[in-house]
Amino acid sequence: MRQSRHRRHVTSLPSTRRVFWAAVWLAIALIAIKAYYLGIPAARALTDFGNYLRSLAAISYLDVAFAAICWAAARAILALAGDPGKPWKQSQRNRLASALSVVFVAFAAFAAVYAIASVIFFGIFGGFLTYPLLALVGNLRMLSSSVAASVTPRVVLVLVALPLTYAVLVETTVRLVRPKNNPPRITFVPLGVWLILGIYGFSAAWTTRQDRRIAEQPHWVLSSSWWQVVSGDGTVRLTDQFPAADLADFDPIGLRPPSPASLVRQVAARAGRNLVVPRPPNVIVIVLESVAARWAGLNGGPYDSTPVLRAESAYALVADNFYAHIGRSSNSLVAILLSEYPKLGFRDLTEEYPNLPGTSVASVFHDRGYRTVFVTPSDLSWADWGPFLKGRGFGELRDLHQLGCPLISSWGVEDRCMVDGMIEFITQAPDRPFFVMGWTTQTHHPYEPTPDVPLLTFQREPVPDQYELERFLNVLHETDRHIDRLFDTIRRAGLEQDTLIVVTGDHGQAFGYPHNTYIQGRTMYEEDVHVPLMFWFPRRYQMVTRSNTVGSQVDLAPTIAELAGVPPAPDWQGRSLFDATRPARAYFYVAEDHFTLGLREANWKYIFALREGVEELYDLDKDPDEQHNLAKAEPARTARMRQRLAAWTEANRRQYERADNPLRPAAKQD
């Protein structure tokens, strides 16, 4: 009997050794992948190498713990499979144990490949892949250009070679290393040291870094985010109490008490009592994809990337404090078009609510006899924009399929083609009033420049991602050049006194300066949410006029309606920027693998990270680059602004409960 037990123990050793060394090599691979993110250090002093090792442990100790947990789970499964109480022959147990160990090696190899892909994804989007991000992405074909810019042949080779190399290393180690103890007890010593060093290193140096999420465990991030969504644990709702009056910021126009005549209406009434009222103007709205005010030339930034718009601002009102609600185009479309706050959620509203109730600004003009069109050089199948826009007052929808230009990236064709489509529509019947909305795409990552157009040099600040920023600014400059043709078309048709042209951005874009963040939608710093806004209207403005009032995208439709002399829709949540009674506030948020809420009120900007409980407060008049966090010095102000954010989340919850239950009658917020 003793000999039989010994024989069973011996026959199980290859499988247990395979599982053990698979876990060891997985831990080594995960550490090496995080080392790739940090960069392999050159020859350094011993103290510098010690700091590097501490940083490496800080961002990889959870990965080592993940490998250890996987090993423990696999050993438990092997123990169950080899239980002598099971009615199996010893040979069957051995084959099952061997098969299970091979499956574990395959799982660990996949985990290593996924870790590499996750670090690449982190470099593109500033965070590991989460289930909500998968829902956000939706259309992988549209993402191909952004991903292809980072997936080089070298990266593809590594992704292919890694699992094969990993399997060879595991099997070689199993055959060559035969310790007396299985697993070797000595291996628990470096495991404990690495965990302790990592916990200390993270708490000492990484908690305040912008890229601190690289320390998270990517496999756990994906699986836990999936569980949060499935279990409904991702709902945003602050617990702070707030005055009921704070909800009035989000009341639709139809539920608000009548306000005094706005400044525009007062001036028009005084100046034109005895004059013939001109016809309502044509309206052109141009939304610049991924363009923050910092990178455009309208708001006093260092980059002369939009010389045409800057020159045309001599006949315009320029808003210096205008904001996007989120770094996500689909939700910006809803806010701009419907004057409705986006849902505080992970998904694209155009997909989640294709039939979202609301009055489109296009329908306001369409119902008054305007010809209307939506033009984009992108693909309206992205995030179901096409189905969402149908029935929203547009007589025509034109995307890359109708514009007839060759693709410049997987995101679409050149912005030149959008301008061509807009001009063609206008000149079809210039005597009839028109509402034209254009949404560019070439300034979307990977910022593909127009072929055969020489690249200019714009570098003015110590931006780490200089290559990407230069490409972006050159594309923006080229788009600006083509917009000049639109202004020229209006003037040649003699319509400059009868046309309002609105130019804004859908959200910003980050390039690593003045904050260590990239792409869009990851933070609420100015480069992410502060966007340009210009109302070109020679009938009213004969010199550049600037407005310091704080506004956001829900305010755009009511402001356009006011300038055009038409009444706003009663269900719009925004207010005209000319309304003297409107609160000088703008609300914005981040919804990725975490939730962050923000508020701009007068010169103050407040940011609250719900997941971490971290507050930031900036005086933008004195600190436009948001470098000096005043939250601790202004506890009363932060508490009050946090109450306003709590009111927003409550109003937003009620708003989208009504959208989910359209038969429920709307009621005034209380």
Helix-strand blueprint:
Blueprint: H1 2-38, H2 46-81, H3 90-125, H4 131-137, H5 144-148, H6 153-176, H7 188-205, H8 218-231, H9 263-271, E1 282-288, H10 307-312, E2 316-323, H11 329-338, H12 349-352, H13 361-366, E3 371-375, H14 385-389, E4 396-398, H15 400-403, H16 415-428, E5 434-439, H17 466-492, E6 499-505, E7 510-511, E8 518-519, H18 526-529, E9 530-531, E10 533-536, E11 545-552, H19 556-564, E12 585-591, E13 595-601, E14 604-609, E15 614-619, H20 635-660
Parallel strand pairs: 1-5, 1-6, 2-11, 3-4, 3-5
Antiparallel strand pairs: 2-9, 2-10, 6-10, 7-8, 12-13, 13-14, 14-15
Structure characteristics:
single chain; 4-stranded antiparallel β-sheet; 9-stranded mixed β-sheet; elongated; alpha/beta; 20 helices; 670 residues; disordered N terminus
Structure commentary:
Helix 1 (2-38) runs parallel beside helix 3. The protein has 20 helices and 15 strands. The protein is of the alpha/beta class and 670 residues long. Mean pLDDT is 86; it is low at 1-11, 136-142 and 267-276. The longest helix has 37 residues, at 2-38. The radius of gyration is 29 Å and the shape is elongated. The protein has helices spanning 2-38, 46-81, 90-125, 131-137, 144-148, 153-176, 188-205, 218-231, 263-271, 307-312, 329-338, 349-352, 361-366, 385-389, 400-403, 415-428, 466-492, 526-529, 556-564, 635-660; strands at residues 282-288, 316-323, 371-375, 396-398, 434-439, 499-505, 510-511, 518-519, 530-531, 533-536, 545-552, 585-591, 595-601, 604-609, 614-619. Helices cover 45% and strands 12% of the residues. Strands 1, 2, 3, 4, 5, 6, 9, 10 and 11 form a nine-stranded mixed β-sheet that branches. Strands 12-13-14-15 form a four-stranded antiparallel β-sheet, with helices on one face. Strands 7-8 form a two-stranded antiparallel sheet.
